Nucleoside diphosphate kinase
Amino acid sequence: AIQRTFSIIKPDATKRNLTGQIAAKFEEAGLRIVASKRIQLTLAQAQKFYGVHSERPFFGELCEFMISEPIVVQVLEGEDAIAKNREVMGATNPAEAAEGTIRKEFALSIGENSVHGSDAPETAAEEIAFFFSGLELVG
Ligand code: CMP
């Protein structure tokens, strides 16, 4: 089915000017970028977005990293968009990411891993609503 998923191009990638190369990977995979904006998160926004990870040992480091530079938040649309995006991103840890994936090509470490993507339809809907209004989604 046609789905929408939420994506973040993270600070390590925007800093190295990789926004276009990463967006091209999404488009080559058949995903359409139906919303896109460059923003810089506040600490409160980062903590809220990553709230499910608040008890993890890396939570503080994760939030500080996510506010260190601008990010690009996007909504990707296409057939099985959630799974397709996860395939294009590759494993969370770039050392385990498959050849040709975004994280294999660009990520620096498990924390500085260049992209975030929703893991399920419910989280995709929540994450899209966190950053975008309906009027900003233009299929
Ligand atoms: P993301 O998909 O954005 O969701 C949570 C993030 O936590 C994950 O990508 C990783 O970048 C980050 N993360 C997971 N494990 C670690 C870790 N051990 N150290 C730092 N960051 C981590």
Notes: The mean pLDDT is 98. Strands lie at 2-9, 32-39, 71-79, 115-117.
